[in-house]
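Sample entry (206 residues):
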Amino acid sequence: MSTERALSQYHVSTWTSDQGLPTQGVNGIIQSDEGYVWLATYEGLFKFNGINFNSIIPEASNNSIAVNSFKGLYKEPCGKIWMVANGGGLISYHQDAWKIYSTKDGLTSNVVNSFLFNSQDKLWIGTSKGAVIKKGERFEQVIIDESNRQIPINDILEDPKGNLWFATSNGVIKTDGNGKFLEKLTLEDGLYSDNVFSLLIEPLNG
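Predicted structure, serialized as tokens:
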């Protein structure tokens, strides 16, 4: 979608409850490799085939899925879909197989706030109690701030140089691609608040 064109120059279709959308609030949206549009909502997961919305009921063999409320969706380049369950950890779906990940699998908290699949093909997760990285079928904590080892992570972003930026409840933390601390920005450095919720890289002109 080109930023040089106005939205009015595109054909826009809108779906609400009148057109069958199960809920008015959508927290995440991705398109699967099969072409379906997946929706994450507080009312559950849904799949759209271009005509109908169908409810998706995750069925993981490794654990029971008690949460049917979702606040995010992400897709890896390999096609694996990740769902952020609302207070229930993470759920993955790939090749018709579901799996749930929780604190039993290394997450520092079942409250997941952010997700990044970086240029090193590493899966980073920000939780309410710090950052973790996926290794094999488990997650391991990465200490990005020695002064607060369980600092809440609200967002994670990778810059063009491969450095990682973490939006936290106590400022912005910059690390290298492996999570090694480089810099911290707080109110003293000009932030309006130490509680940072999201990050965005603005391209430099020229």
